[in-house]
Amino acid sequence: MSLLKISNLNAFYDNSQVLFNLNINITEGKIIALLGRNGAGKSSTFKAITGMIQVKSGSIFLKEKNLTDMPTNKRALAGIGYVPEDRQVFPEHSVEENIDLGKKLNSDIKNSWGKDKIWETFPVLYNLKKRIAGRLSGGEQQMLSIARTLVGNPSILLLDEPSEGLAPKIIEDITKILLNLKKTGATILLAEQNMHFCMNIAQEAIIIDKGKNVWEGNINKLKKDKKTRDKYLAV
Ligand SMILES: Nc1ncnc2c1ncn2[C@@H]1O[C@H](COP(=O)(O)OP(=O)(O)OP(=O)(O)O)[C@@H](O)[C@H]1O
Ligand SMILES: [Mg+2]
After folding, report:
1. How many C-beta neighbours within 10 Å does residue 8 have?
2. How many C-beta atoms lie closer than 10 Å to residue 230's C-beta?
3. Entry pTM
4. Which stretches in the chain have pLDDT values below 70?
5. DSSP state string for 159-205
6. Ligand 1 proximal residues by C-beta, below 6 Å
7. d(CA 46, ligand 2 centre) in Å
8. pLDDT attached to residue 161
9. Following DSSP, what letter does each residue of 63-92 receive, concatenated?
């Protein structure tokens, strides 16, 4: 069943068009890699989904909810969980306070992400719960940003290059966390420039290039398709 459906989307930064008739269809319970080179439009796709750039035509639906003209804060409440490239933790607040800040105002909805489950899923954060977030390493901040977003109980998680700039050990930890989320049936759109990090996590891939979707299919099929990878992905 389709959870997120982007149809014929044209989006702009002021007068400069960045997404061109973009079509993306995300099935519930799948992890999909959103791949493309530097400047291909991955972050802009996320900004269109979260309402941070201007959409001139086309539509974005989360199940039956039309998000196309909804303000950003309402989209978060509707179920869009966004972990931006720059992570955005509250640097002056402790790890635990950051988690508490992720709770949504309308928390009457049944939330499967209580704090106990957060600590269980992110043992690294449990051990750092009194630490000021600004003092965390990049990898720890990445985990905190994911954890804080999960506390909002999103129906889909948008992760923008979560492995970027991190050491192999912490990338391994984040991979484990995402594999755990995969087991729980989470729906995740995972933006990356190349497919190494996504390979064992995502089942499917979508490639975008110059703001258009140019390829989609099973990630194992992409692994065998050197021609497509050479044409559209970073090495
Ligand atoms: N604030 C902005 N104003 C104008 N153009 C922008 C802005 N941010 C990005 N762009 C342009 O939009 C295009 C897509 O950029 P985007 O950041 O979405 O790419 P990306 O796939 O996320 O790349 P990366 O892998 O480097 O993060 C690029 O041509 C970029 O220069
Ligand atoms: Mg980007």
Report:
1. 11
2. 9
3. 0.95
4. 104-111
5. EE-TTTT--HHHHHHHHHHHHHHHHTT--EEEEESSSTTTTTT-SEE
6. 13, 16, 18, 36, 38-44, 193
7. 9
8. 96
9. TTEE-TT--HHHHHHHTEEEE-TT----TT
Query: Top-level CATH class of 2-232?
Result: alpha beta
In the reported structure, the alpha carbon of residue 206 is separated from the centroid of ligand 1 by a whole-number distance in angstroms of 17
**Residue 111: predicted pLDDT:** 63
> What 3-state class would DSSP assign to 113?
coil
pLDDT digits (tens, 9 = 90+) for 48-103: 999 999 999 999 999 999 999 999 999 999 999 999 998 889 999 999 999 998 88
Look at residue 106 in the predicted model and tell me its pLDDT.
57
- Closest protein CA for atom 6 of ligand 1: 13
Cα dist from 157 to 65, 70, 104, 117, whole Å:
16, 18, 15, 17
CA of 192 to the centre of ligand 2 (A): 8
Residue 231 confidence (pLDDT): 96
The angle, 0 to 180 degrees and rounded to 10, between the axes of the packed helices 138-151 and 168-183 is: 20
Pocket test for ligand 1, best of 13, 19, 54, 212 (most atoms within 8 A of CB): 13
Residue ranges per structural domain of the chain:
2-232
